[in-house]
Amino acid sequence: MSLVNQLIAATLAVMLGLAGGTIYIVSDSSKRMLTNQLESHALDTATHLGLYLAPYIASRDAATVETTVNAIFDSGFYQRINVVTADGSMLFSKTTPPVIGNTVPQWFVDLVELTPPAMTREVTYNWTKSGSIFVQGHPGYAYLAYWRVAQETLIWFLFLALISTLAISLILRIILRPLKGVEDQAIALTHKQYIEQPRIPKTRELRRVVEAMNQMVRQVHQMFEEQSQNIEELRRQAYRDDLTGLPNPRATRAQLGERLDYRQDFGPCALLYVHIDNLQALNQALGAEKTDNFIRLLASQLGETGATAGDHIIGRLGGADFALLLKLPPPDQLQRDVNGLLTRIDQDYQQLRQSETQTQAPVRIGIALGTDQTGAAQLQSNAHLGVEKAQQDDKRTHQFRAAGDPQPTDESWHEHVSAAIAQQQIFLQAQPVIATDERPLHQEVFARILNQDNNPCSAGDFISVVRELGLMIDMDRAVVNHALEYLQQGPATAALAINLSNESATDASFCQWLLERLTTLNQRSRLCIELNESSVLNNLTGIGNLRAALRTLGCSFGVDNFGVHPSGFGYLYKLQPDYIKIDGSLLHDIDSDAQDQFFVSSLVSVAHSLDIAAYAERVERPSQLTQLLRLKIDATQGFLHGTPGALE
């Protein structure tokens, strides 16, 4: 029972006690008053009868006495009247049973004992005692009057008690409203939501409680913000280049390996290896400050080129080297993009030199083409050979040619992919996510299609075509339909995780369709919806609404590739996902690198402080698993537990 209800109940109990005492006092007073009235009435009746019947009693005229007594007795106010002569003989007696009648309930008569008083009056005639008259009143009048008083008192009491209870309840709720706010703050704090009460009550005790609670909320919020800032600073130092803000060499190579060697979903690509010739001489010619500015401008131009191209990976490979991985555009388009990039770099260089003569920036670009099967290390090596060849030939760019370079995609492949998506001719592969107690939590599903030779092909072979054709939403619909069909017909303990694309997550009609589709699924807790961290941060409000709807339906929600986005992870306490999957690029050297261990440990700590489970992906070696278990990871996923297999 709440405090307000307890106070109302206590107040009502006190009121009932007071009312009961008041009713008892009023009733007892009424009882005495009625008894006095009956006594007075009996005495008056005896006096009047004595005066009237004195000569008849003296003459022992029983007939006249009987007639007179009967006339009075018929009024119903008397239970007994006795007329006695002077010598004590009964001249006449009239008695009626003390029956109350139907006007007063019997339980009330049994509860309240009323004994009407009996009065005796001596009768004299001619100064001589001629007899006496005994009169006893009937209790019916007293009971009726007493019953009416009790009814009125009870009705008024109930009415006033109801009004008083409502008034007291309203007043107490108004006075104690800040306590309800404190309760809401405490509940919100358990969900890592930081709410302060703007209105401070005037009551001293309540004001102190509210101010203390607001201060605690501010301190907890500040602690979380400081923790996030400290971890973000750690990530910046460990994985970011101080000068440009781009991923440093270790982070860049890890991200390239994650996409090209492990996930293999980037598809045909082009790697631009950008090299600054003789950086030391440039530093002497321009000065340290201008050289740093040139490097920053170069990084900015690379970032703009990558953002224009769409999905990309950018980073610094060394003091004078940068890498930019792009989706493979048409050959002519790639060369135009490279030439445009060099033109903008030359303009920035010219402004820094503040010279009227046109001078090219000392920058060379090696280009290497590849696929998911090329491998990150091979692609970097080919691009670096392109830079060396450009230096040898004194050219600004050179595209390294290799036997495995991707060929231009023909129209038949586009038609094949389009038909497969339109007809939902896809199949699902799955990889398990294993908890620390070796219990499978769920399986993450991956969409696959058959190529023109009816052989399964990796996501990198067709995802870029699907995105180019604008069919990502259609493919996600097919994945959802296949996954739900499996959950409805497959094992009752099966659980699946579906990773939605950014296009689907930002499409209102798809989200509405997804929620309606999920309502048809029994045991919706067996389905998890995952989104890439970049997709979440690009549309935090919309994703927040989707997450709230999924929570209402009972579906889990997770953030994939967590920990690599430059915007940090302060969004977690607002979004409150059920779990995060730490990006595999942060875990490649987790078993040997102290910085990686400390950073991942901080990510796990942040997640656990928000009651969010932390999973690790791309776990390939037992030593990685051992280290992650020491860091209190909740579950792991990767080749260590098996490669993706057909979902049967």
Automatic annotation (TrEMBL):
<dbReference type="InterPro" id="IPR029787">
    <property type="entry name" value="Nucleotide_cyclase"/>
</dbReference>
<dbReference type="InterPro" id="IPR035919">
    <property type="entry name" value="EAL_sf"/>
</dbReference>
<feature type="domain" description="GGDEF">
    <location>
        <begin position="267"/>
        <end position="403"/>
    </location>
</feature>
<dbReference type="InterPro" id="IPR001633">
    <property type="entry name" value="EAL_dom"/>
</dbReference>
<feature type="transmembrane region" description="Helical">
    <location>
        <begin position="154"/>
        <end position="176"/>
    </location>
</feature>
<dbReference type="InterPro" id="IPR003660">
    <property type="entry name" value="HAMP_dom"/>
</dbReference>
<dbReference type="InterPro" id="IPR000160">
    <property type="entry name" value="GGDEF_dom"/>
</dbReference>
<dbReference type="Pfam" id="PF16448">
    <property type="entry name" value="LapD_MoxY_N"/>
</dbReference>
<keyword id="KW-0472">Membrane</keyword>
<feature type="region of interest" description="Disordered">
    <location>
        <begin position="389"/>
        <end position="411"/>
    </location>
</feature>
<dbReference type="Pfam" id="PF00563">
    <property type="entry name" value="EAL"/>
</dbReference>
<dbReference type="Pfam" id="PF00990">
    <property type="entry name" value="GGDEF"/>
</dbReference>
<dbReference type="InterPro" id="IPR050706">
    <property type="entry name" value="Cyclic-di-GMP_PDE-like"/>
</dbReference>
<feature type="domain" description="HAMP">
    <location>
        <begin position="173"/>
        <end position="225"/>
    </location>
</feature>
<feature type="transmembrane region" description="Helical">
    <location>
        <begin position="6"/>
        <end position="26"/>
    </location>
</feature>
<protein>
    <submittedName>
        <fullName>EAL domain-containing protein</fullName>
    </submittedName>
</protein>
<dbReference type="InterPro" id="IPR043128">
    <property type="entry name" value="Rev_trsase/Diguanyl_cyclase"/>
</dbReference>
<dbReference type="InterPro" id="IPR032244">
    <property type="entry name" value="LapD_MoxY_N"/>
</dbReference>
<keyword id="KW-1133">Transmembrane helix</keyword>
<feature type="domain" description="EAL">
    <location>
        <begin position="410"/>
        <end position="648"/>
    </location>
</feature>
<keyword id="KW-0812">Transmembrane</keyword>
<dbReference type="InterPro" id="IPR042461">
    <property type="entry name" value="LapD_MoxY_peri_C"/>
</dbReference>
